[in-house]
UniProtKB/TrEMBL annotation:
<dbReference type="InterPro" id="IPR044876">
    <property type="entry name" value="HRDC_dom_sf"/>
</dbReference>
<dbReference type="InterPro" id="IPR045092">
    <property type="entry name" value="Rrp6-like"/>
</dbReference>
<dbReference type="GO" id="GO:0000166">
    <property type="term" value="F:nucleotide binding"/>
</dbReference>
<feature type="compositionally biased region" description="Low complexity">
    <location>
        <begin position="799"/>
        <end position="811"/>
    </location>
</feature>
<dbReference type="GO" id="GO:0071039">
    <property type="term" value="P:nuclear polyadenylation-dependent CUT catabolic process"/>
</dbReference>
<dbReference type="InterPro" id="IPR012337">
    <property type="entry name" value="RNaseH-like_sf"/>
</dbReference>
<dbReference type="GO" id="GO:0071037">
    <property type="term" value="P:nuclear polyadenylation-dependent snRNA catabolic process"/>
</dbReference>
<dbReference type="GO" id="GO:0071038">
    <property type="term" value="P:TRAMP-dependent tRNA surveillance pathway"/>
</dbReference>
<dbReference type="GO" id="GO:0071044">
    <property type="term" value="P:histone mRNA catabolic process"/>
</dbReference>
<dbReference type="InterPro" id="IPR010997">
    <property type="entry name" value="HRDC-like_sf"/>
</dbReference>
<dbReference type="GO" id="GO:0071036">
    <property type="term" value="P:nuclear polyadenylation-dependent snoRNA catabolic process"/>
</dbReference>
<dbReference type="GO" id="GO:0071040">
    <property type="term" value="P:nuclear polyadenylation-dependent antisense transcript catabolic process"/>
</dbReference>
<dbReference type="GO" id="GO:0071035">
    <property type="term" value="P:nuclear polyadenylation-dependent rRNA catabolic process"/>
</dbReference>
<dbReference type="GO" id="GO:0000467">
    <property type="term" value="P:exonucleolytic trimming to generate mature 3'-end of 5.8S rRNA from tricistronic rRNA transcript (SSU-rRNA, 5.8S rRNA, LSU-rRNA)"/>
</dbReference>
<feature type="domain" description="3'-5' exonuclease">
    <location>
        <begin position="111"/>
        <end position="279"/>
    </location>
</feature>
<feature type="region of interest" description="Disordered">
    <location>
        <begin position="745"/>
        <end position="817"/>
    </location>
</feature>
<dbReference type="GO" id="GO:0003727">
    <property type="term" value="F:single-stranded RNA binding"/>
</dbReference>
Amino acid sequence: MEKMKVALSIIAAALLTVAISSYWFRIKQNKEKTKKKGRSSICYLERESSKPQEKFKVVLADNSYSQFKHLNVNEHPFKEQIEQILATEPQLLASGFSFFDGTLQEDSIEFLWVDTQPQLELLADVLSKQIVFAVDTEQHSLRSFLGFTALIQISTKQQDYLLDSIALHDHIGILTPIFANPAITKVFHGADNDVLWLQRDFHIYVVNLFDTAKACDVLSKPQRSLAYLLQSYCGVSKNKLLQREDWRQRPLPAEMLQYASTDSHYLLYIAQCLSSELKQKDSETPLCPDDKSHFLLEASRRSNSTCLQLFSKEVEEYPGESAASSIVYHHLSDQDSLLSSSSESQFQDLVRRICAWRDIMARVHDESLRYVLSEQEITAIATKGAATGIKSYDTVSEVDLNADSTCVYFIQTQSPVICSHLIDFEELLQGKASSHDDIFQMIFEGHLGSTRTCPISLFNYSLLSKGSLQLTSRSAPKINGSKAVKQGGRKSSRQLFVQKFSCKSPVYHNCKIYANDGRLLCHCDRKKLEWYLNRDLAKLVEDDPPAIMLLFEPKGRPEDEGNDFYIQSKKNICVGCGEGNHYLRYRIIPSCYRMHFPEQLKSHRSHDIVLLCVDCHEVAHAAAERYKRLIAKEFQIPLYIHHVLNSNEPEKTSGLPASSRNDEVGVSPLHLRAAAMALLHHGQTMPSKRRKELTQTVMKYYGGREICEHDLEQALFVGMTPLERRRFMKKRGLPTIQITSNARNEKNVSPTRDVRISGTQLQSGGGRESAVCRTETDIPPHVVSESVDSENGNLSNGTKNTNASAKNNSKFSLLGHGPHGKQVVDSLLKEHGEEGIREFCQRWRQIFVDSLHPRFLPAGWDVQHRGKRDFGEYSVFNPANKVYS
Ligand code: AMP
Ligand code: ZN
Ligand code: MN
């Protein structure tokens, strides 16, 4: 009978393993399939490698309809300095200072490529000591809605620098004080665009500019192009075609690097030539004696007026309006394209729709308008549509969609944006969306809403906010929780999986609390609003989502504390990639350590629990597991306890002090089970080398002693919770049996598997546990095998009972990381006290950041987080106030 049980359990375990691995494989396979097939519902961006701007963490100008925020809210932040320059004669230029030491007509310019932060800091240091330097920028505009600076060329008298402003995008801002320093003259050629681009991307404002193009104007030169100046002053010819090259390329081809450095290298020399000509003119021209440097001053004035320009996003009454007007205008003035008046009005209506759609789609996908659809294409589609009548569009969806070929016979475009979202485009043409509000509704719901087809990014995220829609719509679309727009196509199993494991309701609530002067204090959940309202401490000022205004003066403001973490609207998205449809809670400090922390250090949970989508969860978790191994080595505390099993000693926990263990990492239950399984099934037939390896693995678990078949059978269940075993047996219709002698530890395991994937509110200070998804089956393998095996072994990690389990060793399995965690924490506390724990936490946050490069962390989140904060008298955060619940 005993043998029978063992045999059954072996089969059972084998089936479980197969089931888990094939499940995951299926998901991956399906994901691939849907991608390859190029279904219209899969956004083309999903098929592409990511765009460089997706790595930016600092995005000052996003694609929403809200206006750009300058360093200063309403005015040019350096207005005074610039106005002062406008009023005075440019001293440096007048001084006859020698700008240029280089040789003209060099074969190749030697430049320094700057693409790391330390290099940038060195450069900043060098530049801050200059009195003049030359600048040029290259930008990329095709695959971006607003465009971005892809390269900055800077030349000093001594050296040429090429700044990789893609790699350094988030850091270039450190040059702001240098560009704003009136004591340093900046030479540009035709700075009008550069000045705005630098503001848009880096909050860099140019103060004290000498623009060689403006100097050309003042001197009435026959031409004002840089190519002309290079040719006539330096004898250097310039291949203008390279201007339009894709400056995002890395590495940049040698030819482009040379071209780029040429643009700034000779500028100081040219500036010197032009300023001496200006001076010359000043001295020649018999003006009134008081007005000596008229020309030089004029060039400087014109240059610095450019600096007063402020970048702003274009504003239209409705999206795409100006493009539509221009297309209609051209159409009306084109004699060959005359239509009957009814067709003409249909044409114009189609043009307006398509232009609105194009504008929104360009913003959603962060593409230029022309990348989405050219004006010629719009004219062609609208002309055909108006001529054939809308009815004929019915056939669109029957065409086999292949993203690489022209979509449909009458929609003459290769635009990936259209081809991968053809169903929407079809609906648009058919007039299903009758107003601009409807077009908004359709796009936001279908593309970025709860059933989104397109990736969320820093560039399009704020399009989702209600405010951005106020442009045209009276009723903002409901982004969350609305019925899906027609999707077309079955849901992949991954989607089903995601649905099953996703948070059913938003984890955070975006209610707001304003101070009595109207300034936003924080975002919170409804409960918190009610707490204040019920006590007459606040009044309701907005309905949906609700917002209250406090009737008392709060102690301190978020901005006072230099930390906007608390004001950050906690978004219901993966902090890694921005995915909003599904997310699991992820603990940055692994539970096996955290559960042993002293109580006072556990209080700041919200900082170290973040939402991650399934994919990011996998990445972060794998990195954490790797790091645990390093910790194990560093502390010489193995991750797993060596299970020493003697015949007369059924079970023995390893109570040995850390120093008496060897430093190797123990055997993971997963490896152990796999090895035991292989040996039991194929031990006789496998190569002896492999057999030896596997035997070693199992022997390690048994403390190095010889093992027999019974040991192998026992090993199959190591690390599995009794519940897992029972459920599994039941599922297969097998009698529930227990094999290992771990039964003593199993009594405390809760009867329902409580998979901690979602739901608990992460409100700072709220601390309420709610809405935890309970699932019975099909847990994603990396969640199952890893959290079950590697944490505490019984899934009690992170629940309210962690306290109890820390005190009561029988609560967690001997086979997880619990004991390892406890020893590490004990050792930290012993050696370094609480500071040691804080540093330990910082290390984990660093690992998290390094492994995932999360792009959507709350603004105030940082690796250093110390979690100190004083709470006001009335604050629900104040421990003295008995918080709602
Ligand atoms: P430049 O001022 O010549 O250094 O040009 C700066 C940037 O302006 C280039 O990187 C391009 O993005 C853009 N640009 C300038 N001229 C053209 C052009 N003729 N066509 C397209 N883009 C241009
Ligand atoms: Zn898309
Ligand atoms: Mn250039």
